[in-house]
Batch of 3 targets.
Target 1
Amino acid sequence: MHKVLRVDGRRESTGKAIAEESNQITRIYNNLYKVKSQSGNGEYTVTRNLVGWSCSCPDHIHRGVKCKHIWAVEFEFALKRRVWTRVIEPMTDAFICIFCKSDRIVKDGVRRNKHGPIQKFHCKECGHYFTINIGFEKMKHDPQSITTAMQLYFSGESLRNTAKSLRLIRVEVSHQTIFNWIQKYVSLMQKYLTKITPQVSDTWRADELYVKIKGNMKYLFALMDDETRFWIAQEVADTKHGHDARGLLRLGKEIAQKTPATLITDGLQSYHEAYLKEYWTTRKDTQTKHVRNIRIDGKVHNNKMERFNGEVRDREKVMRGLKKGDTPILIGYQIFHNYIRPHMGLDGRTPAEVCGIRVEGENKWATLIQNARCENR
């Protein structure tokens, strides 16, 4: 193991050097870290309580000082807060002619209908006049009605109650049409968002919960980032025991473009078998640690995943079960959870924001749909 040398004898500078070197610190959960000994003999436990930080190393225990391991954890925490931000902005203008694909277009008045004015464009290349509604082309209803329906539905309303609510703003639409909107735009957004890499932490959690699909009990396996609560990946299985969870872990690795330093699960054997195939390696410096002895009231628990499971169960109760095996509802709720819904545990931010992906605009659904449409042209 490479030994981190003291630059000037100060614990602070040594801690900074530890934090900047890869695979020296392992985050077990919010207030529990493991820091490798720089002599190569084991590791020390750094914890935080109401009083402050404490470490199991002799320097902290016998001298009562802020040791290099505590400094390292604090620097590590600060480094993870400095994330690169990708901004997804609303689109209001056309970029190319819808007929000849020329960029020689100019605005030329507006066309008015019952939903309001729509910008008209004139192409100087082919001479055509046209209107464009990015992401919502050829739709009978306006973008506000469509995105309002999606917000109502994923916030907890049923399809029929969503249709009733839209009538209050004079939008007459059936519950089947609302489902068609969800199916169309969830597919569009999913293709776009899978190309964006979230900056998740090094500790992931996995858990499973039962869902009813076409009257039959199935299991939703979900993978979530511990620090940002970003829902990384999901898959539906027929059974709980004996299911090969390798696909879930592989998908998480592809989306995050890395493997975690720590994977926290319950004692289900499927997770450990998948972990050995996908994340385990003989190289200690890149080895993922699998924590699977979680307890409800212990130091290592899965409360965040249980809270997440409660969200999905509440949504399923309103739907009275899912009607199709390939339903877009679960993917749609994943997008809602990550990019639309603010979380109190994240100071009112979305998981995507904490992961360095900021969706701008008052209507985030419209912003995502517009960008997805342009990306997939």
Note: Residues 266 and 313 are 19 Å apart (CA to CA).
Target 2
Amino acid sequence: MEILCPTPNDFESTAKGLLSAYPQQRVFAFFGKMGVGKTTFIKALCKVLGSVDVVNSPTFSIINEYITNSGESIYHFDFYRLKSREEAIDIGVEDYLYSGNYCFIEWPDVFTGLLPEHYVSVTIEADENTLVRKIVF
């Protein structure tokens, strides 16, 4: 599926569409260049899921946990700084991925082989002239 978002304000409706298209999936891998809007889109997903926590990039912490209104955890990963699969294993990524909680992963390239068999790949691209985002999942 491919959706065009003229502004980041359109991310929330797209997030609702993504979650309803994959109601049984909990692991989502986000691909796209730096600054394309991966974290902003994950903010929209967390809002749709009922989290009122402040969502920001876990670039330095590697993992952020957000809590929904119903008390469920959402895990947000940023693996930009990881250099190997071993680093991901060392932080216990598999425990998170198989927890049954939502896991949103930025920069998953380093360890795609560790992802569960069924995960949702989300690619975000930005038109350099209009800043329209194309979200493909």
Note: The chain has a mean pLDDT of 92.
Target 3
Amino acid sequence: MKTIILLCCAALGAWQPLAAAPGAVDAATRNAHWREDLQYFATVLPAKQMDFFKLIPQQKFEKEMAELEGHVPQLSDLEIILELKRLVAGLGVAHTMVVAGGRGEPIYPVRTQWFSDGLGVVYTAPEYRQALGARVLRIGSRTPEEVQAALAPYISHENEAMLRHESPTFMMWADLMQHEKIADTDGGLSLTLAKADGRQFTLDVAPENGDARSSTNWVSANVELSIPAPFYLEHLKPYYGYEYLPERRALYIQYNQCAEDPKESFAAFTKELFDFADGHPVERVIVDLRFNGGGNSSIVQPLVEGLKTRPALQAGGHLYVLIGSSTFSSGLMAAIDLQQGLHAILVGRPTGGKPNCYGEAKVLELPNSKLPVQYSTKHFRLLPRSDPPSLEPDLPVAFTLGDFLAGRDPILEAALHH
């Protein structure tokens, strides 16, 4: 199953406003180009997206598209794109989306994250560093939960876990926040925050061009507040890696991408892994899939087969899999393979991926605006006897803002001490 194109405001698609200067087209040409794009969208997407008219009634879709086409002269480019995003998100397919809101557009240089007990600030541009580690109480006049509810119609998702994973990124999209009247009319955004000691303060954030400053120059809460690096972060690998914890006789494996590391194939990695395991006392294996958003579902097989040939490593209570809202697509499939085939105990939070879902995503591009639209070509039924919105952990574990600020990883700790 192919992974979702995760929406990151620093690189969210490459659509081109049809009336952009210099060399902007006249209004009549602009409107004609949009109508051509909308007609292409209305014809091609239903033909390419699997089960399109099972996901939305044909009459409803055609009515909405006709109304949108008729209102093109009165709508801005942004408003047309938001209507398309809303319509596609309404299909309820996480792999299917209009990929827009991106490069060069105004963003708020404040990145938040949902924790079990609320929304916290984890990255900012240097001038807003006083917000790092603070709890978000209000965004404009609304609570974070109310803001998420307002943005949800534009976010392709199938469950609450994916919505909470994606909504902080959409909260950075200044045009959307202004469109929803969450930001001020001038684009400014007021945040009401609370430090860990309960002290409240207000921070006014101005939007900036998404290309004006790389997010690599932003400040993280971990660095600014000298938060101890949790084990998973200290040993974070781009693709995969392992560490041995001798005091627990535990083998910790990170599998962060369903893809081959150009520096070491997964087959070579697993050979080294099992050579090590065969030569050391290992009583517990922990496979961390919390950051695996998918890719090629076949990549994981050497790990699965290696565990199958070592009964001591996958006997009851010896194999644990960590999951969370970023566990999606082929990452989710790997979790199910390990749970069903090897009786692994799932630990953590519900997955952002839905077990029975549409996937194998491909992308079409509208001819004039170059707006990318991702669509799904297959349906996967990984749990034939049920249809839950998420893969639920056998051992649910909360991850609070307090845990984050203390550098704790209660999910890994739960797997180590269960």
Note: Confidence is low (pLDDT under 50) at residues 2-15, 19-23.
